[in-house]
């Protein structure tokens, strides 16, 4: 489990180097500890593996003041565990359900037990700024509309494929639009 904790720590540190999430941002984590252990999703939940993953991932995020949402499995319609403070900050709606390893998954259960004031929400309303998917559990519905993959050197946690994404604001406009400050200043110079 120590190796798993170290992999998770390395992955989140690299993620935050590539996408330094500011205080108050929302990070979504979805994962299958069964996949981490080399089994099919839902067949081998492990609270031990979940704890190791959270021990690696949470401290760097929390040190930055980033809110973390941990997605439950399909048996809870992918409801998420968040701190009550995140619920308020993002205008989320609390639902009544408690995760456990066979309905919600080990990762959501471990997060619920670890968080200070945990609540369950049905949706993040596509407000997450970035996140990680461990084992193909599909977190995309929780991310903001323009998600961009982040290529991490850590491609797996245990036996599970690790995918990471950040989001960016939509690009709007037409042929005359510019998308960087530098382009804008250049256009201003040309105008003058």
Automatic annotation (TrEMBL):
Belongs to the UPF0340 family. This is UPF0340 protein TO73_1151. The lineage of its organism: Bacteria, Thermotogati, Deinococcota, Deinococci, Thermales. InterPro entries: Antibiotic_NAT-like, DUF436.
């Amino acid at each position: 489990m120590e190796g798993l904790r170290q992999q998770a720590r390395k992955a989140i540190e690299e993620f935050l180097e590539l996408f330094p999430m500011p205080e108050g941002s929302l990070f979504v984590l979805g994962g299958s500890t069964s996949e981490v252990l080399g089994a099919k999703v839902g067949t081998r939940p492990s609270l031990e593996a979940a704890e190791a993953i959270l021990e690696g991932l949470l401290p760097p995020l929390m040190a930055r003041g980033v809110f973390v949402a941990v997605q439950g499995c399909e048996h809870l319609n992918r409801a998420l565990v968040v701190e009550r403070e995140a619920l308020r900050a993002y205008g989320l709606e609390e639902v009544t359900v408690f995760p456990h390893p066979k309905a919600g998954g080990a990762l959501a259960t471990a997060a619920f037990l670890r968080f200070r004031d945990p609540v369950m929400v049905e949706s993040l309303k596509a407000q997450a700024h970035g996140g990680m998917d461990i084992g193909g559990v599909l977190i995309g519905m929780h991310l903001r509309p323009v998600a961009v993959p982040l290529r991490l050197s850590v491609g797996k946690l245990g036996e599970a494929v690790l995918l990471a994404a950040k989001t960016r604001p939509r690009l709007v406009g037409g042929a005359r639009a510019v998308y960087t400050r530098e382009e804008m200043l250049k256009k201003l110079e040309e105008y003058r």
